[in-house]
Design a protein that fits this description.
Layout (H helix, E strand, L loop, with lengths): L2 H15 L1 H16 L3 H7 L4 E10 L5 E12 L5 E8 L4 H17 L5 E8 L7 H15 L8 E5 L5 H15 L23 H17 L8 E4 L3 H12 L4 E6 L2 E4 L6 H8 L12 E3 L11 E4 L18 E3 L8 H9 L3 E3 L1 H4 L2 H15 L5 H26 L3 H20 L4
Parallel strand pairs: 3-4, 3-5, 6-7, 6-10, 10-11, 11-12
Antiparallel strand pairs: 1-2, 2-4, 7-8, 8-9
Length: 428
């Protein structure tokens, strides 16, 4: 390959894998379709606030390690900032910017009164003790506390963060302001002001979206083989909920590897196995699938629920599913989107499919403010109402405008955002 062609190919590959570039392509595509005013798009191409912090932590051996962290608020025109915090060695500024943008769009699509935010720390929690993670969390919270507040910026769990970490964030912030403030964070334990149904919310929302899709497209979900990439909070809960509703989960994977059984996996048994093993990769009662080939397993419904960029232009042609339901944020690159569309594979985008988590986070925030908590039955019913209504709205736009579901979702969200931007104007 000539040197110039090689460089062009490398640049194209880098842009495909860069989440901020992907996000801005999606924004421009929707803006062009809607003939959106340039000033609205220009506002959304820039994050409102980007905070980079150094996080010194005393390690168990007495040494001091300094980690880099971020908290980014993308847009606040529709309400206070909302978005998760992830701990991962591959966290980058562009990744967190893109995730904050997708949160802005997600909240607008399901019509929650929030703007988008995201946070992250570059670290490998799998190599850290629980004490080191607690000290990292408390110092990081202290560093970003200038942005936080129940009316300003409300974090939540994301990759490698959980209820305990949210409790430490709430406690650290509360110690800073001098009183207990449960509304500053969502995804907390029930005992610290958390909400029933929050832990399962993202996976449950994925199920509601898939079930509504099956109702509209006229296929029997219980007879449609489902494969789920990722066995963290989203993937594991989605697998459990699909199985509880009589669906056949034929594939599941985590970072160590994947499992496949055309007759259906025993999800409860796999979850029990995971309790005593670091990975499900060596689970003995299923066919083993290399993690890099998992999206290629035979299934009708594929749910990527791990990280970004797992379906690319290189493997999109090998996807055997008819439907891709994005449980993770940004799992499908734009180039892969085009390949899947050409092949007739319907993609339900992340900003719709995995919005169950932020929806129940909103419920938790409301309950904390009111100091009045709802039953899990009420929470799941309200979640279903919001997710189903949003799905139908996006699907109607897709049919009317003859566009794919991702573009339709962006059109729904961008329409709400643009109205807020116009009404609020520019200060001063």
């Amino acid at each position: 390959m000539p040197e110039k062609s090689q460089k062009d190919a490398e640049r194209s590959e880098a842009l495909e894998m860069n989440p901020w570039h992907q996000a801005m392509e999606q924004l421009d595509r929707a803006g062009s379709k809607m003939n959106m005013e340039p000033f609205v798009l220009e506002r959304l191409r820039h994050c409102k606030r980007i905070l980079t912090v150094s996080v010194p932590v005393k390690m168990d051996d007495g040494s001091i390690s300094v980690f880099e962290g971020y908290r980014i608020q993308h847009n606040l025109d529709r309400g206070p900032a909302k978005g998760g915090i992830r701990y991962h060695p591959q966290v980058s500024l562009d990744e967190v910017k893109a995730l904050s943008f997708w949160m802005t769009m997600k909240c607008a699509v399901v019509n929650l009164p929030y703007g988008g935010a995201k946070g992250g720390v570059i670290c490998d929690p799998k190599k850290m003790s629980i004490g080191e993670i607690e000290r990292l969390t408390r110092r990081y919270t202290s560093e970003i506390s200038i942005l936080l507040g129940p009316d300003r910026d409300i974090p939540a769990p994301d990759v490698n963060t959980n209820e305990q970490i949210m409790a430490w964030i709430m406690d650290t912030y509360s110690m800073t302001v001098g009183y207990s403030c449960p509304g500053v964070v969502t995804g907390k334990p029930i005992e610290a002001g958390g909400s029933l149904g929050r832990k399962e919310a993202t996976g449950r929302g994925v199920f509601y979206v898939t079930r509504e899709l099956s109702n509209i497209r006229g296929f029997d979900l219980r007879k449609a083989p489902v494969a789920i990439q990722g066995f963290g909070n989203v993937g594991a809960n989605a697998a459990k909920i699909f199985a509880e509703h009589g669906c056949k989960v034929v594939g599941i994977s985590d970072v160590g590897g994947g499992l496949y059984d055309a007759k259906g996996l025993d999800i409860d048994d796999i979850m029990a196995y995971r309790q005593t093993h670091e990975s499900i990769a060596k689970y003995p009662r299923a066919e083993h699938v290399p993690v890099e080939h998992f999206v290629e397993v035979p299934c009708e419904v594929l749910i990527p629920a791990a990280m970004e960029n797992t379906i690319t232009h290189e493997n999109a042609s090998k996807v055997k599913a008819k439907f891709v339901i994005e449980g993770a944020n940004g799992p499908t690159t734009n180039r892969a989107d085009r390949v899947l569309e050409e092949r007739g594979v319907l993609v339900i985008p992340d900003i719709l499919a995995n919005a169950g988590g932020v929806t129940v986070s909103y419920f938790e925030w409301v309950q904390d403010i009111q100091a009045y908590f709802w039953s899990e039955k009420d929470i799941n019913a309200r979640l279903q109402d919001i997710i189903v209504r949003a799905f139908r709205e996006v699907y109607e736009v897709a049919q009317r405008e003859r566009v794919d579901m991702r573009l339709a979702a962006f059109m729904v969200g961008l329409n709400r955002l643009a109205k807020a931007v116009r009404i609020r104007g520019t200060f001063p």
